[in-house]
Amino acid sequence: MQEQKLKKVAILGRPNVGKSSLFNRLARQRDAITSDISGTTRDVKKRIVTISGNRDFEVIDTGGIDYSSELFSKVADFSMRAANAADIIIYMVDGKTLPSEEDRELFYKLQTLNKPLALVVNKIDNDKEEERYWEFLEFGADATFPMSVSHNRYFNDFYAWLEQYIPAREEKPELELSEDTEIDPFDEIVRDINEQKEELDNKIRVAIIGRVNTGKSSLLNALLGEERSVVSDVAGTTIDPIDETIEHNGYEITFIDTAGIRRRRSKIVGIEKYALGRTTAMLEQADLVLLMIDATVGVTELDERVAGLIEKYRLACLIVINKWDIREEKTYEEAVNEIRDELKFLHYAPLITISAKTGMRVNKILDQITAIYERYKQRIPTSKLNDVLREAMNRHHVPSHNGAVVKIKFATQYETKPPKIALISNRPDGIHFSYKRYLANYLRSKFDFEGVPLDIVARKRGERFDEE
Fold it and tell me: Which pLDDT does position 439 carry in this prediction?
């Protein structure tokens, strides 16, 4: 059988319109460097990506088309060559500016290639800014999409357009999510995604985050057994994030010793601003977070903001209470109750009390990391998942919605890291968030998800399982 040839999708546009950000969004990871400085991407990057679960293609991130200097002229030539080699072209413009004559000329030039061509008007960050999008309709493009790549807005129509030109992968049919009133959905033969043998997944990226001077560098040194980063009593000694890898329980654990997150000021300039930006960027690549809390201070408002990053990136978490040896007279129960009360959204994260300086209980952290990661990447067999779902619904039936009966036909886990579960329902919008929370708590009582966020979404049969 002849191997299916992947379609090539080229992203073009003038400098600083968001090409690399769109590339990263499609690739689901940060690869190309993105910034507000024009011309950050100076080469052509390629990545095989998948949309809608089974549509694979090669996306090409080109440098900005600009002939203002010798360097940019070469980059622009590479970009146009990429367009000629591509099957599908995406031309991006900056929606915060008015249409320019340069953009018109470049777009009309691309139209002469007679290839599927979409005009993406980026940086339409809210509904009010949609007015600027209308200005670009004068280009006369067959497909024009408003978009905010940084805010992940307006992607559905864009994906639907891409699907017209990206064929589905040639493979055995997956679980058919079509309405069938004659068969009890719970008795259907559900194909488990985990039946396929998964590749070895033994690399864990761990970010150590917390307020300034909570002992992040001391913890890293204690875990590694040697001094790798400068440590002192002066807040903010560590500036550059330092990556160090060790092996434990068959895993390669890479620690990211992030620079301390500074207290908000009216201006954060120079090296501190750089360090803060790199901290956030590395969290995007992390699997698990060690959240450092200073036992001598307790949970502060800034700790809550730091912890909010964990919620944002849906990362596995272990809360590490450091300096336990020099705390005031406070029992373990009191400390735990205080942290649970202040950090309610991290209810799933286990806690451990340590002293990074003396090494007390530090050796237990590595075991915790590997155990939590096992749960972070676990996949629950569909049959077991639906057995537990039936139990939960027998205990508390799904509430009706505006008088209409809401049925959950079955559930399936469609993603890991973190585990994501879809409830296939006749009225997905009618499943109240409080009932989803009840199901999440019930699933946690039956399956070990300690240290792991659990996402539950409701979908109709045949509807894609993209992020909400």
Answer: 95
DSSP of 116-180: -EEEEEE---SGGGHHHHHHGGGG--SEEEE-BTTTTBS-HHHHHHHHHHSPPP-S---------
Which amino acid would we find at residue 445? S
CB 404 within 8 A of CB 428: no
Q: Which two tokens stand for residue 410?
A: 């079955």
Give the Cα separation of 298 and 294 in Å (integer): 6
Residue 346 within a domain: yes
Q: How far is CA 406 from each of CA 295, 397, 460, 468, rounded to the nearest angstrom?
A: 47, 10, 12, 20
Q: Which domain holds residue 276?
A: 203-376
pTM higher than 0.70: no
The DSSP call for residue 325 is G
- Amino acid identity, residue 184? D
Q: Give the mean pLDDT of the chain.
A: 78
Say yes or no: 316 and 433 in one domain: no
Q: What is the C-alpha separation between 14 and 72, in angstroms, rounded?
A: 10
Closest residue by Cα to residue 290 from 214, 237, 375, 344: 214
Could you tell me if 158 and 215 lie in one domain?
A: no
